Input
Amino acid sequence: MKKGYNVLKSQKLIKVSLEYDDLNNTIHSIKISGDFFLYPEESIDKLEKNLIGIRLEKNSIKQIIQQCLQNSEIFGFDSESMTEAIFGCLIK
Amino acid sequence: MSFSFKEIRVLETGHNTACWNMALDEVLLNSVNDVPALRIYGWKPTAVSIGYFQRMEEEIDTEKCKQLDIDAVRRITGGGAVMHDSELTYSFITKRYPQNIIESYKWICDALIISINKLGLDTKFSPLNDIVLNGKKISGNAQTRKRGTLLQHGTILLDVDIEKMFSILKIPSEKLRAKGISDAWERVAGLNKTFTEVALALKSGFSEKFGATLIVDKITKEEELAAKKLVEEKYITDKWNLGR
Output
């Protein structure tokens, strides 16, 4: 198990704490924070929950973000920048 | 689309703790009827609020806050960490509002701009959620929507203590800290007006913007009890404040 942390400046700041299984290349746990706006706010919990167990592969992650937030309104990031913020945890 | 209101309920609730302030805003969000509410308030002691999606330990030096007797609380609205010191804070709660989020911010910020400009200043809306004076931020705003009701609250800076602000807000490194301080001086400003002057202007501006008669009111016993309950059950707890 490995841990990563990344801060990405999109329109607003996105901060990601990631714990991932480097053998299976899957997300074990994830916490997303930042000064963005998301309505309804509880969508973030759904997103974090749905990312658990997902393979660390850009298209898969982006798809989950889009699915989870399809009925939400977002200001400060998009699925592209959120994906980038999550992957930034792996590089560091 | 333009909205007007026949009446606006005005609540001037004084200077209170961070937990009480956030609890009362939530109570008003839950209880507002067809008459929108404009609440005008301040913070005592000085406080820091963090956005709904922020983590306390990432944003604030909580030990420093304790040393300086500064309250810390998490908001129900998104956005960034804010130090509430020399400022006037307002909240506006309404069941009728533009559904588009940018429009709704602009709609309420227009009322703020009309208000502040009555003091002889020339402020402008800076999307998504700021108001600027000569390019410097003098007001930050945040909103949430629950069960068909919109709450927008925000600060109007009267004066800014940048050193104090940066002593409690976490900055990643000394280098960034130095850059941050000089940057903040460039970007943030106070109105250099009194709380009373701004409060009067705000009431006048909201009345003008929405064509409304102001109904000066006090919080009811039920609202007070509900806010006390929310303080105890939510805003004072680590479960909420450290919840992300």
Notes: Strands of chain A lie at 2-9, 13-21, 26-34, 37-39, 73-75. Chain A has one domain: 2-91. Chain A touches chain B through 18 residues (CB under 8 Å). The mean pLDDT of chain A is 94.
